[in-house]
Amino acid sequence: MTTVDRSSAAPPVRTHAETRTWVGKSIRRVEDPKFLRGRGGYIADLVTPGMLHAAVLRSPHPHARIVSIDTSAAAALDGVHTVITGAQAAELTDPLPDFGPDPAKHVWRCLAVDKVRYVGEGVAVAVADSRYLAEDALALIDVEYEPLPAVVDLEAALLDGAPLVHESLGTNCAYERTFDFGDVERDFAEADVIVRDRLRWHRSGGQPLETVGAIADFDHSTGELTVHTNSLSFTSYLFMAAATLKIPANKLDVRQVPAGGSFGSKLFVTKPLVIAGMCSRAVGQPVVFLEDRVDNMSNCDHHGSDRVYEVELALMRNGTMRGIRIDTIDDYGAYIQFGVGHHGNALAQVVGPYTIGSVRYRVRAALTNKNQQGAYRGFGSEVNNWMLEQMVDKAARELGIDPVEIRRRNFIREFPHFIPTGNVYDSGDYDAVLAKALELSGYDHWRAEQAKAREQGRHIGIGLITAQERSVFSATEFWFWFDEPGAPVTSMPESVTLKVDATGGITATLYSCAFWGNSPETMVAQLVAEEFDCDPHDVAVVYQGSKNGLPATGPGGSRTTVMLAGAVEGATAKIKAKALRAAAHLLEANPDDMEWVDGGFQVKGVPEQRKSLAEIAVMLHLFKHSFPDDMESGLEDSKVYDHPYTTMPSADRKDLGVFYPFVGHACHVPVVEVDVETGAVRILSYVAVHDCGTLVNPRSLAGHIVGGTAQGIGTAFYEEFVYDEDGQLLSSSYLDYLIPSAMEVPELTIGHVETPSPYTPHGIKGGGEGGRMMAPAALNAAVNDALAPLGVRLTELPMTPERILSALRAAR
Prior knowledge:
By secondary structure, the protein is α+β, with helices and mostly antiparallel strands. Helices cover about 25% and strands about 25% of the residues. The protein contains 19 helices and 30 strands. It has a seven-stranded mixed beta sheet, with helices on both faces.
């Protein structure tokens, strides 16, 4: 086995200030005023008179060859500027960027060319003076289809003789590999007990209030394309998008606007961006494409995970965990656009908070006639949390050990800790989180109430799970899926430019996605205020488009706050270094005798000998000749902050390296009551205790936890994209796709434990995916606890009333 050299890769251990002025304060978000006044600048806000509108014709078939398309009637409609078919789009654009199994045999385009592979796939686009006219034009397009057999079940898709989604691949298995970490065979051979289970997680997805959209404006005089979009802006991905549009990357300027909700579902916005860009280039005018709700649900950027698990957990009789074997099939739909990155996320925290010595992980990526699968809050690691916690609870029940005690016996307690896959957990105190959750939840009280309720014929259940939240991803995980050498270690940078104007006002310029819900403006304002001793609400935050931007990655993987903190710290240090030299010159003092205090530099021990930041700035802006010749005018600098801790995988892939190193932790304790006559579940209490390292804005983090938990409640009980056996999407509107309302989401009791990361600015870890990372597992545990006396155990999400009643009938 080849091991990874981690010693040289680990960043230096940081020491953190014990007291802070702004970091850790629950200030009001600086973004709120513009959104509350309707001045947020969403896609729909940018639509202007004269802008053309695009609408896409969707396939009604899950699998069919396109025999012919007649667009003549649509093109002749007054007010229609162009109609573009998939075949024409293939001439105007190259295939979409994807991380599929074989680009030559798995081709993904903005519109289908030869055949459609799922209900909702685009076959033509109409551009007209209004969206209404564009929709009317779609109704006039005559498409002749030759229906083909569809495959919908992920396991059936892998059987011999199944209809092929991509004939050229010769298989519906887009990827298959088994990884072994540690001595799996020994741990299972020496185990006293092996707990087995089959688990099913059904497909759901992020439901943003604002659908996916893009406004494109192609300038034929310069060959430049400007796109406003509510998407993420991976720098590298924009290069690929430019290639798809057949324009030089330096002539594509993607400008981010607020997302109006994403939760991962707007990770790339590939199809809308390309469709709008292609149409604008074709007609020579600005074009907006904004999905309607059916577009978004049937053909969005991607749905969430869709998995079946066969799992074995090896333990000793005292509850000590030894090893785990995981065999999972994941349904990626018709196009595997993002590779199997979901499972990289899972492998970053596959053993949870437990000392498990070995892991076998087999993954098979199935292609089916469904919309493509991709990121949804948690990006696959929330599914892993659910699977693992189900196994821990089942083991506790089979061994007769209290669910709290089995977790305590297996907690990791020494940090940094390298898990079997090679990733590192930087810090944590899982015992403290558990203790606080038990206290806040009144755990013993609810156990007593549960016993009383059972005597009355009521079914109360208490769920308790302890789970991880990996954060600050590095796309290095893209390279470890294959044996051949991959690209070098990636940094996934984030950048900030800070400018102190002549009055001392500070402006921060960001270069990645504007407001996905993660409050980047508030985070940066607080971090700048911490460094410069100013009020966060006095800091201006602006955004720059990709053409003039510094390297940036944007949100995703709970990374934004950590990375922006590093960028702010670096840019601040550069500005302070120049300001220090300027102040020393103005005060005729030795720079070594100067110190930063309360927003300015002063001579140590002589506080009256002082220059504020504003006084320094005005001199540097307006009176350059008062300084040495080598000092330039102005007070502005930038920092490109690179991912601080990644290592490459070993050649034999028995060690995947460090790629998600700052790992948070949480304990959720919900209490539910199940009505065994109707299958309805009522949440009586819900406690969530999180450790995200040093808190920046507890109020904002609480929003993440509440919102994520609400989505987790949806995943646990309500939300599911249901395809029938013929491949028709049955839940393409909110009449059938149910979302929890305020009536179903209880008031949460939230607690925090802070174990600062030794490797990040201020000790911050990510917390953006908290809630959904834990809630499905916690609620499943609570329902199973309620129904345990009846011999019922739910192993399938969502736990709809129908599934609960079916399980009860089977038990009877």
